[in-house]
Amino acid sequence: MSHYDQGFWKWVKDNVDVAIAPVEGVKKAGALLSKGVAALSMVGIWNGSPKNEEGIPELHPQLKYFAQPGREAVIVFDQDGKIKTQASVTAARERLSDCFRQACCKVTCLAWETEEKGIDDAIAANGSQWFDEMWKKRGSKPKTVKLSRIEHDLPAWNEKSITDWLATLYEKKLIYEDRTKEWYLYGGQKEGVWSITSNESIERMLMTQMDNLLDESKKFNKQIYTAMKSVKESNRDKFEKKELLSQLKEQLIDYRSYKLRFVKDCRERLSRVVLIDKFVSKSDPNLIPMANGVLDLQDRILHPHSPKNHYTSALPYEYAPNTPYQPIKEWLIEMLEGDLSLVEVVRAYLHGVVTGRCDWQKYLELIGPGGSGKSTLIRLAIALVGFENVHNTTFKKLEKSNFETASIKDKRLVVITDAERYTGDVSTLKALTEQDTLPYEKKRQQATGGFKPTCMVILAANENIKTSDSS
């Protein structure tokens, strides 16, 4: 192959009874030349019949040189079973065949039954004797190809298939809690955090995926129709065309438009697939979820977020170990009038708020007149854990409303203001700080059992709190 031509191609030119074999690529041409076939290498299946300035296909000059009346041109293109590739190969082969026929050449095609796509691989796998037999069997029409099914992950358009597809798509990122009848979505609102998501939001999310699925199905079917068009325009007889068209039609996706009822049905079915009895948030005082990862307080290593953690909140800032804290300590000393023991108590409680130490079963009570720094300290606590992780309430709402405790679920901090104005029972506050089960009830929804709170509590009042509970 590395030697200069010593007259072989001139000999081919002078002997019209010698067949030529246009083939894609030098490797395939070399394999055929080694078997005594006058193979002509093309750079791409379309380059053998480029279009002229008027848009009419014509033979490449190097092919035209050998395209003499009566010469046989054996087109040897890959035996690819993929629909999109097969459509392109069929169209390119038919165009090249027409150009050779216009030059009064006899056009035949080489086809084989083995699994190898290219003729070079087929010769290497099956041997010289196999090739000799295949060369003798070359025909004037391309052999009918058994098309392999095109590779895709698009589901059938029915409730079960769509739901299974969605379940795979949202694997480990979507949970439905049986106890509270709530959806949890990982990373939906904040990276690394599972957040409660409404039915309507879930349905909107599913609709977006279904719309994408429709677009992908249309693109897939467009490939099928392109292949069918090439088959119809080919020089195969009507029986072969019918067989190939039947194979192609079988692979069309039967997609259709959908209604909201279908989305709701898929949501209902999906809730059973991703169902768990109880969503348990990870509670480890040595691990703190932050904006840029999960901080291990023992070794100060920042680990990446993971849905396995089941965190329902994260601090709203990134871990920055060199951030100065002295200004906050100085302000606490000033607010507490130099009482260092109280400063350490407040700092300890703020540390508990950040690390989620609800196991302490303690609440922080702030008493003092307006302007004494209560509100500033509360704002500091809220800033430490993030506003979205805090629930503000009053004693009256907490103790009297049946629906208030549902708002506490998965919060890191509960702030109770105007506490001195309430003089009634504080059983809910006791249950909250002692980690007893609280009821989970929402308006216009059936009660769904209870939950154990995982939050710290800060009370703020201008005067000492007076309640009917002496304990």
Secondary structure layout plus pairing:
Layout: H1 8-14, E1 20-24, H2 26-33, E2 38-42, H3 61-64, E3 72-75, H4 83-102, E4 106-109, H5 119-126, H6 128-136, H7 159-169, E5 174-177, E6 182-186, E7 194-197, H8 199-233, H9 238-249, H10 260-273, E8 275-276, E9 287-290, E10 293-296, E11 301-303, H11 326-335, H12 340-355, E12 363-367, H13 374-385, E13 390-394, H14 395-400, E14 413-417, H15 427-433, E15 438-439, E16 450-451, E17 456-461
Parallel strand pairs: 1-2, 3-4, 5-8, 12-17, 13-14, 14-17
Antiparallel strand pairs: 5-6, 6-7, 9-10, 10-11, 15-16
Helix pairs in contact: 2-5, 4-8, 5-6, 7-10, 8-9, 8-10
Keywords: ATP-binding, Hydrolase, Nucleotide-binding
Pfam family, one: DUF3854
Protein name: DNA primase
Can you walk me through this structure?
Residues 337-471 form the SF3 helicase domain. It comes from Crocosphaera watsonii WH 0401. This is DNA primase. This protein has 471 residues and is an alpha/beta fold. The chain folds into 3 domains: 8-136, Dna Topoisomerase Vi A Subunit, Chain: A, domain 2 (3-Layer(aba) Sandwich), CATH 3.40.1360; 159-276, no CATH class; 326-461, 3-Layer(aba) Sandwich (Rossmann fold). It has 15 helices and 17 strands. The chain has helices spanning 8-14, 26-33, 61-64, 83-102, 119-126, 128-136, 159-169, 199-233, 238-249, 260-273, 326-335, 340-355, 374-385, 395-400, 427-433, and strands spanning 20-24, 38-42, 72-75, 106-109, 174-177, 182-186, 194-197, 275-276, 287-290, 293-296, 301-303, 363-367, 390-394, 413-417, 438-439, 450-451, 456-461. The strands form 6 sheets. The chain has a 4-stranded mixed beta sheet with strand order 7-6-5-8. A 4-stranded parallel beta sheet has the order 12-17-14-13. β1 (20-24), α2 (26-33) and β2 form a beta-alpha-beta unit. α8 packs across α10. The N and C termini lie far apart (99 Å). The mean pLDDT is 86.
